[in-house]
Amino acid sequence: MSSGALQNSGPATAAAAASPPARRSGFGWWKVLVTGAAGATVVNLVVFAVAKLAGASLVVMDAGEQHPITIGGVIGSSVVPLVVGTGAALVLALWKPVFLRIAQYVGSGLALLSVAGPLSADADGGTVAALSLMHLTLGVAVFTTLQLHRRHRRHR
User: Fold this and answer.
1) What is the pLDDT of residues 109-125, one digit of tens each?
2) Are 150 and 27 in contact (CB under 8 A)?
3) Residue 118: how many CA atoms within 13 Å on its side-chain side?
4) What angle do CA 105, 108, 109 make, to 5 degrees?
5) Is 112 within 8 Å of 150 (Cβ atoms)?
């Protein structure tokens, strides 16, 4: 680096310091919830559509009764747990920020553990695979959603 570059950097630095800070775009708490819920829902609807096209029955037997898996059920099962769990983590993080990291692992772990339900369900293989993938998608969505918020908080 030449000495001429150092001599000319003074006015540019002063001008940069005097200008207003650039507006940061980022994911605030509500944007995180909407983005996470929408992302999980879209992926799970794609899994649902692929399973249906592949010939999966999308019916689970429970105590001799058939329980069909519907689009509304997929949407509700994607949005409600993510918004409730992630929302609780975001509220707790206002008190102690460490809850964001804890919730990333606990929420993802619970979603992974919940895969045991579809794996033990009385349903055809395609339905079991689709439901398992939907549970895994929710776990990834929880982790990613909270990571987006953690990054936003770090860069503030």
Assistant:
1) 999 999 999 999 899 99
2) no
3) 21
4) 80
5) no
Q: How far is residue 22 from each of residues 12, 19, 30, 50, 156, measured CA to CA in Å?
A: 16, 9, 22, 44, 12
- Written as six digits, the tokens of 70 are 């519907």
Q: Residues near 77 by Cβ (< 8 Å), separated by ≥ 6?
A: 44, 134
Considering Cα of 39, then 101, then 133, then 119, what sign does the dihedral take? Answer: negative
pTM (2 d.p.): 0.77
User: Can you give the three-state secondary structure of 114-141, one letter per residue?
Assistant: CCHHHHCCECCHHHHHHHHHHHHHHHHH
Neighbours of 53 (CB within 10 A): 8
Q: At what angle do helices 98-113 and 125-154 cross, to 10 degrees?
A: 180
Q: Residue 51: is it exposed, middle or buried by C-beta count within 10 angstroms (0-12/13-18/19+)?
A: buried
pLDDT digits (tens, 9 = 90+) for 14-37: 544 555 554 444 567 888 899 999
Q: Considering only CA atoms, which of 107, 100, 109 is closest in space to residue 85?
A: 107
